[in-house]
UniProtKB/TrEMBL annotation, chain A:
It comes from Lachnellula hyalina. This is N-alpha-acetyltransferase. Residues 25-189 form the N-acetyltransferase domain. InterPro entries: Acyl_CoA_acyltransferase, GNAT_dom, NAA30-like. It holds the Pfam family Acetyltransf_1.
TrEMBL record, chain B:
This is N-alpha-acetyltransferase, NatC auxiliary subunit. GO terms for molecular function: transferase activity. It comes from the Eukaryota. One of its GO terms (cellular component) is NatC complex. The keyword Nuclease does not apply. InterPro entries: NAA35-like_N, Naa35_N, TPR_NAA35. Residues 67-227 form the NAA35-like N-terminal domain. The gene is naa35. Belongs to the MAK10 family. It is found in: Cytoplasm. Its main location: cytoplasm. Coiled coil: none annotated. The lineage of its organism: Eukaryota, Fungi, Dikarya, Ascomycota, Pezizomycotina. Keywords: Cytoplasm, Transferase. Residues 334-736 form the NAA35-like TPR repeats domain. It comes from Lachnellula hyalina.
Length: 200, 757
């Protein structure tokens, strides 16, 4: 495995129709100055579905380098606005391990974490967060977007597949709990155009 | 979180040579009580002068803002995932909850009741099977305090294994001896299993955890001594305790004997006899009394690991026995691979064995690899060349002078036979690895089979080209006379035997890539029409290619048939190759028939909006085409079907829905006849010697899928006709796509058509 992976969006999809959302969910792009205010709630929201938490360094690894690929869904009716959902990603050149790959080097976006609080699910927040991320990645020259999701997580799989992702492979016993995953991939450009003008 | 990272880092840290005294003398959780930093550890490495930079570091750190990250380019996600936070109970292995002690306080001199012994033994068996299922020793067997007592400190003789360190042979209570003998047998068994898995190709953590956390699995204690202790204890025991000791002795004997590649029948009998012991064990587990205090998650703190204790893995007795029974059944079958018939039967054996549901466990899969490839000797007594030549002979080179061993003896460099031997050796050195990799690949877990094939398929494309080069050189020496057939081409037609062979296997593997995609549920419902179309394209290409091979084989056969001198051997070789080519052609025809039928059926379901594609605002059909066919994009032959051609071929816009259904029904019918013929072939004719029963079952499952496809087609047709007749706009059917394992065959996703009122 070229890089370790991060469990994705086990809580992306609705389970219950809960309390009504505020009329307008506010989506904001993360930046380093927001760390003090939001990092604790980001960690709390994401850790909820993990058997073992990520260290602070994992969050900082992403947020410090790709803060603008992190989006938060906030409830503007509370003071301070409370966190309803969050998505964390990175975008880097990716070199294929295969010399014969049709896509030897790509600008690869990677969605690492996605979570929406249980009470706010089923309102399209996760979808909106993913869309903002894809658009930001596309603007920054991404050739493709990839992620992994647990095989049993039908909700997350439907969310990504509705947007255009395909399952490219199945990864056996990928997670600590022994469950398998699918690698989901979205090509944003044709293979011919990949790796040409990506910004780093 | 993905677990690989942490363990990887863990073992790295464990290897780091620090001055232990300085680190471990501090009480646990010192940081909370002591504001003074501990003295710097002394690095014991020659030529390195250590320098305390704590102050400079602290000063530099103060310049940073909270959350600012300073890292070099080599600090990757992998490293950040491996980082720990001290004093976080889920990350800090030394963190203790209020009142928690570092170690367990267990009295090893306490006497145990027989029912407690049964309870502990049966719990250990569950843990052993959990380990076989892929959980680490640290969360299974190593959670037993008795096991820990034996392994720490590492014993080098049986005398060092008493639970109560004041005990000796004379005064060890019988129940302690029983448990000790069982534990020793268990650990030794695990030692053999671990060794086997580690020696073969497997994926650490994904398939199995061989990590022993720096503990020995009794490598220092002689097998015979443990068996003797078990036997001696059996003599002093009775009832279900004796049964358990006997079970352990047999298990240990099997894993020791199973490595042998010369005692097929004996190993097979051992597995089947061993399996007979299981019902007795199973029916008496209820007599056991659980002894939960003799297991502890805390022991993990003593193991070479930096992560906090993880929960003890709980596998039910029932699941454990299931696993064990399968181990026995699969073990008894796996060893049969040693009976070699021909290379194609070998390949069939391995692929059918690996397709068993559930897939055989990692230990058995690695045993199978050992049987096939151990010490680079095929099946214990054949060279790789023998198997490869056998395969070439039964496919493209029957009775060929190229495979004549006498060529090797020719020493005159200008002799064509010398040149042939030389070129063939070059070919073998190039092809043998790729050929054996096919076998090695199908020994992996199902996901890895597809992933690996997607990677290696490009090598076969290159191999085919390289072989083509050799084919052209070789025909100078063989004086091959080309076929001249103006109907096909104005050019002379040569056999290109070696590249033909490579092309054949490339096509097979491309088919498997597509088929494994169905099994692993990689495709979305609206992709099925295209993927079955691609499968029929590949199978049809294989069938045409086989026609070509067949033509050349026939030509050679006719040439020798009338010659008396050729002898029986070449006659047999031709017959065998022709039979194989014939068989593979039939198999390809049945495959493309059913694939064609399903492709049309899915196209109809797409047209009728019974399968609805997702909106996919960020993607286009063309980009998904490239993503889906990525493994094939750069393959030279067979040519990639261009996007628009593929789209048209699949959607067939000029055909009416009813005519598509008619065509689908005919194709399913033809495939059905094909599978029926296949199901009547003998083991020799179907090249499945050694696995005929599984092969027949597989063909019959395909046959059922065919029949079911016919029914689905008929149901859709009726609904469409009904709609036309009534002028209604409502189709009174809906579609269900069966999950893998729920249909008749995982490679044939047959949609279920359900009438709705």
């Amino acid at each position: 495995m070229s890089s370790p992976s991060i469990s994705n969006s086990s809580s992306a999809e609705p389970q219950s129709k809960e309390a009504a959302l505020p009329p307008e969910v506010q989506y904001i792009q993360y930046s380093h100055t927001l760390e003090k205010q939001y990092l604790p709630s980001i960690r709390a929201l994401i850790s909820k579905d993990l058997s073992e938490p990520y260290s602070i360094y994992v969050y900082r690894f992403f947020l410090y380098q790709w803060g603008d690929l992190c989006f938060m869904a906030l409830n503007p009716t509370t003071t301070p606005p409370s966190l309803l959902g969050v998505i964390i990603s990175k975008l880097e050149p990716h070199n294929s391990a295969l010399p014969s790959s049709p896509t030897p080097t790509t600008q690869r976006g990677y969605i690492a974490m996605l979570a929406v609080s249980a009470a706010s699910r089923n309102h399209g927040i996760a979808t909106a967060l993913v869309q903002k991320t894809i658009e930001e990645m596309r603007d920054r020259g991404a050739d493709e977007v990839v992620l992994e999701t647990e095989e049993g997580n039908g909700g997350a799989m439907r969310l990504y597949e509705r947007l255009g992702f395909l399952r490219s492979k199945k990864l056996s016993r990928y997670y600590l709990n022994g469950n398998s995953a699918y690698r989901l991939v979205l090509f944003l450009r044709g293979v011919e155009d990949m790796g040409r003008d990506g910004q780093v | 979180m993905h677990s690989n990272a942490v363990t990887g880092v863990t073992s790295k840290i464990a290897d780091f040579d620090l001055d232990n005294d300085q680190i471990n003398l501090e009480p646990p959780g010192f940081a909370a009580y002591n504001s003074e930093p501990p003295p710097a550890p002394k690095l014991k490495s020659a030529g390195i002068v250590s320098l305390d930079i704590t102050e400079q570091f602290v000063n530099a750190a103060k310049q940073l803002e909270l959350g600012e990250l300073v890292k070099d380019p080599h600090f990757t996600l992998f490293e950040s995932v491996g980082a720990l936070e001290i004093m976080d109970p889920k990350m800090d292995s030394g963190y203790l909850q209020a009142g928690e002690t570092m170690e367990d306080d267990y009295d090893f001199s306490q006497l145990l009741l027989p029912e407690e012994i049964i309870g502990i033994i049966d719990q250990l068996l569950s843990h052993e099977m959990a380990w076989h299922m892929g959980h680490p020793l640290a969360q299974t067997i190593f959670t037993s305090l008795y096991i820990d007592r034996i392994l720490d400190p590492c014993p080098i003789s049986l005398e060092q294994t008493y639970f109560d360190k004041s005990e000796s042979c004379e005064d060890e209570p019988l129940m302690h001896q029983v448990l000790r003998a069982y534990c020793l047998g268990l650990l030794k068994t695990c030692g053999y299993v671990n060794q086997r898995v580690k020696s073969e190709h497997y994926y650490e953590e994904e398939d199995f955890v061989t990590h022993t956390f720096h503990r020995s699995l009794l490598e220092n204690i002689d097998h015979e001594l443990i068996i003797e202790l078990l036997e001696e204890t059996i003599e002093r025991s009775q009832g279900c305790i004796g049964l358990r000791l006997g079970f352990r002795a047999s298990f240990l004997e099997i894993v020791e004997a199973a490595d042998s590649r010369t005692s097929l029948e004996q190993v097979k009998t051992m597995w089947t006899d061993f399996q007979l012991l299981l019902p007795g064990l199973k029916s008496t587990t209820k007599l056991g009394k659980p002894a939960p205090t003799s297991f502890s998650a805390k022991i993990q703190r003593k193991l070479a690991s930096t992560v906090p204790p993880r929960p003890i893995v709980q596998v039910s007795q029932e699941a454990a026995f299931d696993q064990l029974e399968r181990l026995c059944r699969d073990g008894a079958v796996a060893v049969e691979v040693l009976k070699y018939y021909d290379s194609h039967s070998l390949m069939t054996f391995v692929s059918l064995f690996q397709a068993r549901k559930p897939q055989p466990s990692v230990y058995i899969r690695t045993l199978l690899q050992h049987y096939i490839f151990g010490d680079m000797i095929m099946l214990g007594n054949m060279s790789i060349r023998q198997v490869l030549d056998d395969d070439l002979s039964t496919t493209v080179l029957p009775a060929s002078q190229l495979l004549d061993r006498a060529n090797d003896e020719v020493e005159f460099p200008n002799d064509p036979r010398f040149k042939m031997a030389e070129r063939m050796e070059l070919f073998r050195s190039r092809a043998a690895g790729s050929f054996l990799d096919i076998l090695r690949t199908i020994c992996q877990n199902r996901c890895r089979i597809r992933r690996t094939l997607c990677h290696t398929i490009a090598d076969w494309d290159i191999l085919q080209l390289d072989a083509e080069e050799l084919d052209m050189q070789l025909r100078e020496f063989t004086k091959e006379t080309p076929v001249r057939d103006r109907e096909i081409s104005d050019e002379p037609i040569y056999s290109f035997s070696l590249s033909s062979w490579a092309y054949f296997y490339k096509l097979r593997q491309m088919e498997w890539i597509v088929q494994m995609g169905f099994e692993l549920e990689v495709y979305q419902p609206d992709e099925l029409a295209t993927m079955y179309y691609y499968l029929q394209y590949l199978a049809k290409t294989r069938s045409r290619h086989l026609e070509r091979i067949k033509g050349f084989n026939f030509r050679g056969f006719n040439a020798i048939r009338n010659k008396k001198t050729a002898g029986d051997a070449s006659h047999d070789e031709y017959t065998k190759a022709l039979t194989f080519v014939n068989f593979s052609t039939m198999e390809a025809a049945a495959t493309y028939g059913l694939a064609d039928s399903l492709s049309c059926l899915f196209t109809v379901l797409d047209r009728l909006s019974l399968i609805k594609p997702p909106p996919r605002p960020y993607s286009s059909d063309q980009m998904r085409y490239e993503l889906r066919l990525k493994p094939f994009l750069l393959i030279g032959l067979p040519e990639l079907i261009p996007f628009t051609d593929l789209t048209n071929a699949v959607s067939q816009p000029s055909e009416s829905t009813l005519s598509l259904l008619k065509y689908a029904a005919e194709a399913a019918m033809a495939a059905k006849r094909g599978f029926e013929v296949l199901s009547k072939l003998s083991a020799q004719e179907a090249f499945c010697q050694g696995s005929h029963d599984s092969w027949i079952k597989n063909v019959k499952d395909c046959l059922k899928a065919c029949i079911f496809t016919g029914i689905s087609i008929a149901t859709v047709k009726k609904a469409v006709e009904g709609m036309d007749k009534n002028g209604s706009k409502e189709l009174k059917i809906r579609v269900e796509i069966p999950k893998t394992g729920k249909g008749y065959h995982d490679w044939w996703v047959v949609p279920k058509i359900i009438p709705v009122s």
